[in-house]
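QUALITY CONTROL LOG
STEP: pairwise intake check
CHECKER ROLE: data steward
CRITERIA: each record must contain a sequence immediately followed by its C-alpha cells, with no blank fields

ENTRY 1 OF 2
RESULT FIELD BELOW
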Amino acid sequence: MKILIIGSRGFIGSHCVDYFSKEHEVWECDVVIDYDRPRYIFIESVDSDFQDIFINQKFDVCINCSGAANVPFSLEKPYNDFQLNTLNVFKILDAIRRFNNDCRYINMSSAAVYGNPISLPISELYDYAPVSPYGYHKQMAEMICEEFHRFWGVSTCCIRIFSAYGPRLKKQILWDIANKAIKNDIVELFGTGHETRDFIYVSDLIHLIDIVIAKATFKGDIINAANGTQIEIGEIARLTLKALGCDKRLVFKGENRKGDPLYWEADITRARELGYGQQIDIKTGINQYVKWLKENALL
C-alpha cells in the first residue's frame, strides 16, 4: 500500500511515518525543507498547493496530520488557524477529487468540536458545540470531508482525537508540567485540577489509525480517538511529578484558560467495534514520556 502522510514531521505524523514504513511505501509531506529523506515532498507553509502531489503520484491512503492544535493560537491568529486546519483540508480533498479519486483520506480532527458537553460520555452523534476558533475550524473541516464524500464520492474519515500524548510532544499539559517542575519551586497550572480529559497514548492512536484504514467504511465516517476514561488534570499533574522524581508544590489558579473545555470523556463504542483496545495505560504512558524527555536532554 502507498501512503501519503501530510504533516510528517509533526508529533502524530512522525509516529505514523515510523509505524507505517515497516510494511508500506510511505511518502512524507511537510513544510520543513529536508533533502536527505527519501520520498519526501516539501510544501509551502503559506498558500499551500497540493495539486502537484496528486498529479505526480497516486496514493492508496492520505493521512492528514498537518494543522495547528493550539487553542490560544486560534484566538490570537484566527485566519492562520483557519488556513491550517480548514482551508488546507479543502485543498487536499479537491486535489484528490481531481487527480486521485480512489485515494482514501483520513483527517485528524479534534474533540474540540464538542466544546463543553452537557452529558458524558460523548458519542460521535453529539451536536457540534465548539468553544474556540480552533474547534469551529475543526468542525468546518469535518463538514468539508462530508461534502467531498457526498457530492464527489471521495472516501473520507475523520478521527476526533481527545488528548493524545507521548514522546515528541513539546506542548500541552505534560510538557507544561515538566518544564515548570524543573524551573520553579511551585508548579502553577490553570483551572482547579478537577477538570478532566480522556487521554490516549500516541502508539494507541497510531494503532487506531491502522485499524481505520483496514476496517472503516470511509463514507464520511467520524470516530472518537480516546480510551473512554476521564482523568482529572490534578491526577495527571501528580503522576507526572512522581515520574519526574520532583517534590514540587502543585498550585491551581482557579481560573480556566479561554477556549478550554472543562470535562471530557469519550464514548469509544465505534472504535471498539472496529477492534480498538487500549494497550498503554496512563501511568505507563506518562513514565514513557518522562523517559523520552530525559533521554533527549529536554529536562
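ENTRY 2 OF 2
RESULT FIELD BELOW
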Amino acid sequence: MDVIERIKSTVESQPIVLFMKGTPQFPMCGFSSRTAQALKAVGASFHSVNVLEDPEIRANLPRYSNWPTFPQLFIHGELIGGCDITLELYESGELERLVQDTQKA
C-alpha cells in the first residue's frame, strides 16, 4: 500500500485523526500540543499519528490534504485544519459539537 493510500485509509477508518509531531502524551511542538489539548478538553477520543516517526507520511500528508503544516486534524475524513483553526473552533464551541457528532455516528 503506498503512503497516500495509508493516509486515506487512516483518515477514513477513524472518526477523528490528528497528524501531529509527537504524541498527545509527549507532543514535540507547541502547535501539536495545543491542538491535542483542545481535543482532550472537549472529551474527544481521537487517533493520533506521530509524523516524526513516519517520514513518508510527514512528506506526503501536505500533498494529500493541500495543507502545508502540522498538526492536521481530520474529522469524518475531512480536513478541519491546523492548530489555529482547531483553537478557534474550540473557543467558539464548534469543536465540541463536531466531536459529539462523531460519537453519535
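INTAKE CHECK: passed for both entries
DESCRIPTIVE NOTE, ENTRY 2: The chain has a mean pLDDT of 96.
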